[in-house]
Amino acid sequence: MSDLLSRRLALLGEPANLSLLSQCLHGIERECLRVDDHGQLALTPHPASLGSALTHPQITTDYSESLLEFITPAEADPATTLADLEQIHRFAYSKLDGEYLWSPSMPCALPAEEVIPIARYGSSNIGQLKYVYRKGLALRYGKTMQCIAGIHYNFSLPDTLWERLQKAEGNTRNAQDYQSARYIALIRNFRRYSWLLMYLFGASPALDAGFLRGRPHQLQQLDADTLYLPYATSLRMSDLGYQSSAQAGLTPCYNDLGSYTESLRKAVGTPYPAYVEIGTQKNGEWLQLNTNILQIENEYYSNIRPKRVTYSGERPVQALEDRGVQYIEVRCLDINPFLPLGIDLEEARFLDAFLLFCALQESPALNSGECHACTDNFLSVVKEGRRPDLHLQRRGEPVPLQTWAHELLDKIQPLASLLDQSHASEAHSLALQAQRAKIDNPALTPSAQVLERLQQGESFTQFALSQSKQHAEYFRSQPLSAEQQEAFEAAAAQSLRGQAELEAHDDGDFDSFAKAYQASLQALAV
């Protein structure tokens, strides 16, 4: 353990500081496709009984009208966060008529591209803007790829904790800059070590054969309808997933917040020739918001993002520059198809210890060589993480995955113990212990367990639909209390009123609105 990490642990272990670790905040966003009884993509509109996808704070849609997204509030205890997520699922199932929430990350058998419905958000200018943005995504990346689902894990440390660390270290920067720099340092360490999460929690080693739409690939045929790689952990996070030639040259630097926001500013203000050729409109119909590398900042795809809650009308980059980093969003987690929520408390407890380690461990700047090694290690693990004797690159030298993984868990153990002290429990250490078992025995990983089921004769679709129906039964067998149901009904009704109000009070037409929006992007890129 480094001296710096030891000092930070000692400081946080002091009685006056220990309670700060129980004030970390956690939020989860879970995406999932709606499917019919046969495991086909549901082509029905977003159920009005769930509320407005535009204005509901907890139930919305992501890319497709069929791709639900459930959003929890930020809570101090991930057990509460998961309980919130469970309530949203139970409410959704009280409204889904003959439909199911698809259990894995990789999509069901999808219809032709033109049939996959893009999410609709009503006739307001902001609703139309969200729709046109998604039309642009379809043009740029195809609809199939946009139907992949995942879990996003939001995490923050309390401001007071940063303040005490800063004071103890004699750092004289202003508090906002120090906190932002420390979150960016966390992200650098996440880049170094996130391959471990893919080994432990990757759960997409196989997919429906139709997903590739006839594109060339190096996957193996498991059965007539299923493709896989024998040692893969997460095909979702491989180069089969979200790909973009335009974004290939966009590699935001995580060595400081300024260089990160500058790279995004540049991307939202730089035209990309292939998109310029398409244009923004054809015969008066909008095709994409603009012809730049990114239509908006959120189009940039990454495994982790620095975040700040935005004010109304404020752009994400502006919020980060004005008020600094508030929390991080982990975006590389697969949905575990064996779990009704796609994630459980054991995984959340381990993530907390892992992220706290990333936050407190020394985090030197990433040079280009280490940056490439981080990317290569990550891609090696998502494609062949369970291959016996797989070696990764560490400081230019090959190291066995199992060796490095155990060494990392040894370093994370004191963080898990500190979290346990602050919560008066053993939950984090037990969660870490469960991950050790997976390193010693790859058969315990979710990816291996998925393949084990498929190798017993089920196709990917049969397995996923079977799990989806089991989960539906789980949620429907324990309905919400009358009071909880009433609160969700009220929130749905309120969101529909909110959308109607937006539509009734819009000023100006959409073309003018889009023009003003584009001007804000140009100002951003200056």
Automatic annotation (TrEMBL):
EC number(s) given by UniProt: 6.3.2.2
UniProt keyword annotations, A-Z: ATP-binding, Glutathione biosynthesis, Ligase, Nucleotide-binding
Biological processes annotated in GO: glutathione biosynthetic process
Broadest EC class assigned to this enzyme: ligase
Domain of life where this protein originates: Bacteria
Catalytic activity: L-cysteine + L-glutamate + ATP = gamma-L-glutamyl-L-cysteine + ADP + phosphate + H(+)
GO cellular component assignments: cytosol
Pathway: Sulfur metabolism; glutathione biosynthesis; glutathione from L-cysteine and L-glutamate: step 1/2
Database matches in InterPro entries: Gln_synth/guanido_kin_cat_dom (IPR014746), Glu_cys_ligase (IPR007370), Glut_cys_ligase (IPR006334)
Residue spans crossing the bilayer: none
An annotated Gene Ontology molecular function: glutamate-cysteine ligase activity
Domain Glutamate--cysteine ligase, chain residue ranges per copy: 10-380
Protein family according to the UniProt entry: Belongs to the glutamate--cysteine ligase type 1 family. Type 1 subfamily.
Designated name of the protein: Glutamate--cysteine ligase
Organism: Pseudomonas taeanensis MS-3
Gene symbol of the encoding locus: gshA
